[in-house]
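Retro notes
What went well: the complex prediction finally ran end to end.
Inputs used:
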Amino acid sequence: MRPASQTRAVGIAIVGVSLLFAAIRFLQMQIDAKTRTVEQQKEELLLRSPSAVKRMSLGYNALLADIYWTRAVQYYGNRVGTPDATFELLWPLLDIATTLDPKLVIAYRFGAIFLSEPGPAGAGRSDLAIELVKRGIAENPDQWNLNSDLGFLYYWRLQDFQSSAAAYLEGSKNPKAPSWLKMMAARVAEKGGSLETSAMIWSELRNSTQDPIVRERATQMLRGLKAQEDEMHLDDLADQYKKRSAHYPASTGELRDAGLINGIPVDPDGYPYVFGPDGKSRLNPQSTIVIPKELRTPLSPSN
Amino acid sequence: MSATTAPVAINTFREAVRDRVLYNLIFFALMMIGAAIIVGQISIGIERLVIINLGLSAISIFGLVMAVFIGVGLVSKEIEKRTLYSLLAKPIRRWEFLVGKYAGLLLTLVVNTSFMTIALAAALFYVGRPFVRSDSSILVAIYFILLELALVTALALFFSCFSSPTLSTLFTLGIYITGVFASDMRDVGELTGNPSLNAVTRVIYYLVPNFHNFNAIAAAGHGESIPLSLVGQNTLYAVLYVTLLLLAASAVFSKRNLK
């Protein structure tokens, strides 16, 4: 073949191959669009029996546990924050991961968070979260962190202060456990449900965790607790104001003018609180502080 | 090793190197690098654990594939190429030839595993955690894998003495899988409550090599210490089994008609 025709052939080949790949890409996109529902169905777990998966792992159960844990993280990550998201495969994935490697402490700890967080931040299954952590404690009795997590779940999710105190106390028996665990047990038993105790729990969680996501979450909760404490205080002052003036204050400025407070109180975001027509204080609409539902009901400032 | 078996072992090792068997190390290194970079981004808190579990599992799987597929060809290849006849014409006994072949493949596996261990250490170093005392359990887990490979190699060599490579592969893998499930089989026998079945499953349990003994990957991943007594017991277990298999292989091979 002559050089000119050879160059031409190479050129045609390059163009031809490029066109073929373009056509393949187009076709693949078409197929993807049609099979998206099939892909969604693929999320079904073929094997739900942890013991069967363990047997089939042929001894490579530790590696398989890592894979299942990663799948659980991905599964949770793909759904968290999505309205109406369901987490039905979260428990089976965590169940398999922890059966394959019962020492995978991270799966118990984070798995419990994923399971217990109310929707859309989690599966809202505190019962399964507690079961998971209990199983983790049974398999890893030297891990006081798991007792602390159990105490947290009982306290925060179920408001079962007696079980919470018992879990903290059990963890404090571990020689490696920090001294605050024993203090926490006593505190929860004595003043479970108080804002102060709740703040202490979240504060210890923030200080003890090494994970930035959990630390951020704890910081948010502490800010929410501070805001709620402020609101309760302002509500009391608003009642006092009403006794004097026969109407509720329209703003915190009126409380200051009446001499009930010295300055204008602001939330942890720096925004002043506002009052509703019912005399109840609220967060400023511009504030990013969120007071979760758990903080609204059972807590009191000096229980 | 005697003066007659050493050359056979060295030549077996050289042949494996010539056959580019150690190329799997490149794949292993790439896999370790990839895992070290990717896992931290797609999972939570198990970056180091995955490196250890993946590294040790890969060392075990790569080693097993090599032990089985090279092991079953150790004798048949020599017969096929007709090099065995010229070799046996020299002052070397059949059992010495077998032991040399076995030692050569074992040397290949040790070298391969050593390089993979270095790659694993490099990956662990990359994920940024200083080595601590408990990491010694990783080395123990690797030693256990080597014991497992020594046993599988002996099995493959034994079957290759009287069977074709295909059948030898099936037999070796069959015994390996049975060995992995040995304790499950024993438990099933106990669960049935049938004395005869229980006796059979117990015999199988003690007869087949129990490969579960050599699995310390999970313990190494969590930095759990492995008792020295277990190291000794596993070593003795492997030595006894390998001796038994090499004796059986020698007996079979010595009586085999090579004409």
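What we learned: Residues 222-296 of chain A form one domain.
What to try next: split runs per interface for comparison.
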